[in-house]
Structures are given as C-alpha cells and as structure tokens.
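WARN no homologs supplied; continuing
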Amino acid sequence: NNSPTMLPPPESTRLVTIIAHVDHGKTTLADNLVESNGIISERLAGTLRYLDSDAEEQRRGITMRASAIGLTHSYVPPKMSQNNKQNGKAGGGDSGGGTAASSKSSASR
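OK structure emitted
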C-alpha cells in the first residue's frame, strides 16, 4: 500500500500516558503538552482543560472520561548531535484519577 499517510513511521511514534492520583495535575500537564504544540495559548494552559470535552467535566472541573490526542515532538537520540534531531508523533492521554472514574475511563476507549 503506497497511499500517503499523515502518521510517521512507528519507530518515530511514542505513547505517553499520564497516570496519577486525584488532584495531582494530570489535566494541567496535558494542557501544557497541548500548549507546547501551539494548539492553545500559554495563558490558557492549565486552566482550559482542553481534553475535558464533556460539558459535565467542564462544569464540575473533573476528568470523567479518558481522552487522547496526537502531538508532534522533536528529540535528539542519545549521543547524537543537534544535527541529527528527529521529528515524530506522540500520542498522549489524560484520564480520571479516582476509583469512580476508572470504570468510565476504561469504558470510553
């Protein structure tokens, strides 16, 4: 299959999962990662709750369903110069941190 794709090769793809207890900054970290890709402003990062797209999540200020997003990233493999910088895609996710949210998080996949 030679069809064009927007996805980079698997060796350039990383999966990042944010796991922490309730109120330990998972959504704030996710907002800051989204901001690093220029999707939201630096001013809104940490307060916008970009991945909390459900109205009830926004109203209550809690993450109830897991969310995922694809972001670009650049990295320099160990022992290589800046000239060998590689670009890739990172898949990230944010989920609720409590036991009550765990069944909703797994059901939202």
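The longest strand covers residues 67-75.
OK
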